[in-house]
Design goal:
about 210 residues; mainly alpha; Jann2411-like fold; two-stranded antiparallel ribbon; about 10% strand
Length: about 210
């Protein structure tokens, strides 16, 4: 679902997550988006966080019941992650309190396992406990990778005036401007065209 379509469903209490960031950490930050009447909150309950993790492909096993405190910790992590990304973009310092807390408490070992369906080996996460920190640890790890392995100049926010979505610019030219060309890109280009057309009409009328 695109940004515009999501905005039209604002009255629906169930938010449709947008995965346009080309990065797990940024997609997690984008789980809250939009301004004013178009504001969307995808992490509205423990179950909603579980759904988001599943859609993002980072929920191990068949976990159907969220652990206690998942929502509260997820919101803390998102706030800290957003502050860290913003700090990196503007070259200032801020504390990685929640990220470090989850890295320490939620570390999950990896082990090599045989995938019968694909007849191949694969690396799987082994949860020590199905607690909130363990489930959110991949997000915290993604924040670390983003901040230490990506140029801050390539972490950007959509240039549409009413869009808050962030993304990692992976284009060869590094000139990506929009969260999605199909939504914000097109509508901003249409708006710019209409503005130029209107200005041209006014100018012609003035010259008469």
């Amino acid at each position: 679902m695109g940004y515009i379509a999501a905005m039209k469903t604002n009255k629906n209490p169930r938010c449709a997550p947008l995965f346009v960031g080309d990065n797990l950490a940024l997609d997690f930050i984008n789980s809250e988006f939009g301004v004013d009447e178009a504001h969307q909150e995808c992490l509205s309950s423990d179950d909603a966080v579980l759904v988001w993790l599943k859609l993002a492909g980072v929920l191990p096993g068949n976990i159907d019941k969220p652990p206690q405190g998942l929502l509260a910790l997820a919101l803390q992590l998102r706030k800290n992650a957003k502050a860290l990304v913003t700090a990196a973009r503007f070259g200032v310092c801020t504390e990685a309190t929640t990220v470090n807390q989850i890295l320490a408490a939620g570390y999950t070992p990896r082990e090599l396992s045989w995938n019968k369906a694909g007849n191949t080996f694969q690396v799987v996460r082994v949860l020590r406990e199905e607690d909130a920190s363990s489930l959110l640890e991949p997000i915290a790890q993604s924040v670390v990778t983003l901040l230490t392995g990506t140029s801050p100049d390539l972490i950007r926010q959509c240039e549409a005036h009413d869009c808050t979505l962030m993304f990692h610019d992976k284009t060869k030219s590094h000139r990506r401007r929009w969260c999605s060309m199909a939504t914000c890109g097109n509508r901003m280009k249409v708006a710019a065209f209409r503005s130029r057309t209107k200005e041209g009409t006014v100018e012609k009328l003035t010259m008469r």
